[in-house]
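Before going further, learn to read the protein records used in this course. The integers have meaning only within a learned vocabulary of local backbone shapes. To see the layout at work, look at the sequence and tokens printed below.
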Amino acid sequence: GDQGPPNYNGNLNGVSINSDGTCGGGWVCEHRWRQVKNMVKFRNVVTGEGVSNWWDNGNNQIAFSRGSKGFIAINNDDWNMDEWLQTGMPAGDYCDIISGDKVNGGCTGSTITVHGDGKAHIGL
């Protein structure tokens, strides 16, 4: 059966927030994880944009853009993804918001460079 929320003798534990932003008291708080928070931000940015520039390897690697506002690549294969893909994005350097955060105009994780033809090298 389901474990249920963190409790002590049936009384729910309070949610405490640790100094690193994670939850204490037995709570996990997945919504606070950087990757999850940033994917919600991504969704908010690309809302209303259609799916385009679809690519897949016929197995478990996919990539697509949401108009010219966002691009995502996902690799669920047991081997690396190493492709030059059309992103639909304007030329420039973009922060990979899964591997890091965008902070003060920089990126704490990987940066992806989109060239003038809209293509970028995607390695996952």
Notes: The longest helix spans residues 34-46.
